[in-house]
C-alpha cells in the first residue's frame, strides 16, 4: 500500500516547527527518522494532513555534557540517530548502558536513520531507549506552545504508545544524570532473532559497595504496556536475595500473552535475565557487547 496524500514542511528552527504544529493542530505530526511513522503511513494506520520534518533543525541534534545543581548531565538531542547515540565518545564513557543497548535496536539501516527522540515519543513498550531512560533516571525535555518542561522518565511513559506529550509538543532532548564512580549497570535482551523487538529485556543501574548493591533501578521492557521499574525485585536484590527478586517479578510485570510467546514464558525469561544482570552488577562477570557491530 502507499501512504495517503499529505502535505510536507521542513522548518529550519524549533520555533517554526512548533508554530506549524500549533497552526495545524491534530492534523500535523512531527517526522523524525521515519522508521516507524512512514511504515504506519504506508499501512494507512495513520493519515495526518501535514508532516513537520524535524531533520533540518540543528538544535535538536548532538550529544553534550553540562553541569547542574545535582551534578553532571549528558544531554542527547532528540534528532540524534540511534547509532550516533550509542557510538558517541561521551556516551560510551559516561553512559555505557546506552552503548550496550545500541546493537539490540533493529538493524544497521534503521539504527542509522531512527532517532532517540522518535523512539521515546513513540513509546513502543518492547524497545530499548525508553527502558534505558527509566533505568538511568533520565528526564525527557519537551517544548510546546508554552515553556520548556522536563518530564522524569518515571512519569513520561504512560501506556502502550502513550506518553506525557501534549498535543503540539515536541521532544527536544533527553537528559541523563552522569552516574557516580561507584555506579554499576547491566543490560540483557532476549529476542527471537537478533534485530527483532525484545521478547523481554532489562536495563539496570545501581551502585556497588563492599556492602553489596544499592539504589537499583531495574527497568524491564517487553513485559507490560510500558517499561516497568521492578521495585520489589530491586529491594530483594539489594538485600542479597536473588531468588526473592526473581519471585517478586510475578507481581510486578504484566507480560503480554500472544500465540508465539506465552506470558509465563516471558516471565520465566525475565527471571533468567535478572539473574544474569544481577551477576554482572555484583561483579561476577563482565558485560559483553551486543551480538553484532553497530
Ligand atoms: P518516526 O518514525 O519519524 O516517528 C515515530 C513517532 O514519533 C511519530 O508519531 C512521530 O510523529 C513521533 N515523533 C518523532 N520524533 C518526535 C519528537 N522529537 N517529538 C515528538 N514526537 C516525535 N526500535 C527499537 O527501539 N528497537 C527495535 O528492535 C526496533 N526494531 C525495528 C524493526 C523494524 C523492521 C523497524 C521498521 C523499526 C524498528 N524499530 C525498533 C523502530 C525504530 O527504532 C524507529 O526508529 C523508532 O521507533 C522511531 O524513531 P524515528 O526517529 O524513526 O521516528
Radius of gyration: 19 Å
The CATH topology label of the largest domain is Uridine Diphospho-n-acetylenolpyruvylglucosamine Reductase, domain 3
Q: In which range does the helix fraction lie?
A: 25-40%
Low-confidence stretches: none
Query: If helices are DSSP runs of H or I spanning 4 or more residues, what is the number of helices?
Result: 12
Q: Could you say which small molecules are bound to this protein?
A: flavin-adenine dinucleotide
- Euclidean distance between termini CA atoms: 31 Å
Largest sheet: 5 strands, antiparallel
Large-scale geometry = globular
Q: What proportion strand?
A: 15-25%
Mean pLDDT level: 94
CATH architecture of the largest domain: 2-Layer Sandwich
Reading off the top of the CATH hierarchy, the class of the largest domain is best stated as Alpha Beta
Number of structurally distinct domains: 3
Oligomer: single chain
Strand order of the largest sheet: 4-5-10-6-7
Strand segment count: 14
Order of helices and strands: EHEHEEEHHHHHHEEHEEEEEEEHHH
Counting helices, strands and paired strands, the structural category is alpha+beta
Question: How would you describe what is shown here?
Answer:
- This protein is α+β, with helices and mostly antiparallel strands and 294 residues long.
- The protein has three domains: 7-53, Uridine Diphospho-n-acetylenolpyruvylglucosamine Reductase, domain 2; 58-177, Uridine Diphospho-n-acetylenolpyruvylglucosamine Reductase, domain 3; 183-292, 2-Layer Sandwich (Enolase-like, domain 1).
- It has helices spanning 14-24, 37-42, 82-87, 89-94, 96-101, 108-113, 116-122, 128-136, 153-156, 231-238, 242-252, 263-281, and strands at 7-9, 28-31, 50-53, 63-66, 73-77, 139-143, 149-152, 157-159, 162-163, 170-177, 183-190, 200-209, 212-221, 228-229.
- The protein has a five-stranded antiparallel sheet with strand order 4-5-10-6-7.
- A hairpin with a 2-residue loop joins strand 12 and strand 13.
- The radius of gyration is 19 Å and the shape is globular.
- The two termini are 31 Å apart.
- Flavin-adenine dinucleotide binds at residues 29-37, 39, 54, 78, 105-106, 110, 114-115, 117-119, 121-122, 124, 127-129, 170-171, 197.
Amino acid at each position: 500500500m502507499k501512504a495517503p496524500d499529505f502535505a510536507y514542511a521542513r522548518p529550519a528552527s524549533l520555533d517554526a516547527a512548533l508554530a506549524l504544529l500549533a497552526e495545524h493542530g491534530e492534523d500535523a505530526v512531527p517526522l523524525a527518522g521515519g522508521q516507524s511513522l512512514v511504515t504506519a503511513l504506508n499501512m494507512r494506520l495513520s493519515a495526518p494532513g501535514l508532516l513537520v520534518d524535524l531533520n533540518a533543525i540543528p538544535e535538536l541534534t548532538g550529544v553534550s555534557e553540562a553541569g547542574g545543581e545535582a551534578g553532571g548531565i549528558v544531554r542527547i538531542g532528540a534528532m540524534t540517530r540511534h547509532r550516533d547515540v550509542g557510538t558517541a565518545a561521551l556516551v560510551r564513557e559516561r553512559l555505557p548502558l546506552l552503548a550496550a543497548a545500541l546493537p539490540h535496536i533493529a538493524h544497521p539501516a534503521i539504527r542509522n536513520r531512527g532517532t532517540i527522540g522518535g523512539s521515546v515519543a513513540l513509546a513502543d513498550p518492547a524497545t530499548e531507549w525508553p527502558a534505558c531512560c527509566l533505568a538511568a533516571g533520565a528526564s525527557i525535555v519537551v517544548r510546546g506552545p508554552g515553556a520548556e518542561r522536563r518530564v522524569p522518565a518515571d512519569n513520561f511513559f504512560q501506556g502502550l504508545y502513550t506518553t506525557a506529550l501534549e498535543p503540539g509538543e515536541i521532544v527536544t532532548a533527553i537528559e541523563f544524570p552522569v552516574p557516580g564512580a561507584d555506579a554499576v549497570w547491566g543490560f540483557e535482551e532476549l529476542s527471537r532473532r537478533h534485530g527483532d523487538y525484545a521478547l523481554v529485556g532489562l536495563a539496570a543501574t545501581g551502585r556497588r559497595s563492599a556492602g553489596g548493591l544499592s539504589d537499583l533501578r531495574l527497568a524491564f521492557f517487553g513485559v507490560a504496556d510500558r517499561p516497568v521499574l521492578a521495585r520489589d525485585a530491586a529491594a530483594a536484590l539489594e538485600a542479597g536475595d536473588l531468588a526473592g527478586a526473581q519471585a517478586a517479578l510475578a507481581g510486578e510485570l504484566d507480560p503480554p500473552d500472544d500465540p508465539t510467546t506465552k506470558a509465563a514464558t516471558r516471565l520465566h525469561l525475565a527471571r533468567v535475565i535478572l539473574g544474569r544482570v544481577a551477576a554482572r552488577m555484583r561483579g561476577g562477570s563482565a558485560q559483553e557487547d551486543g551480538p553484532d557491530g553497530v
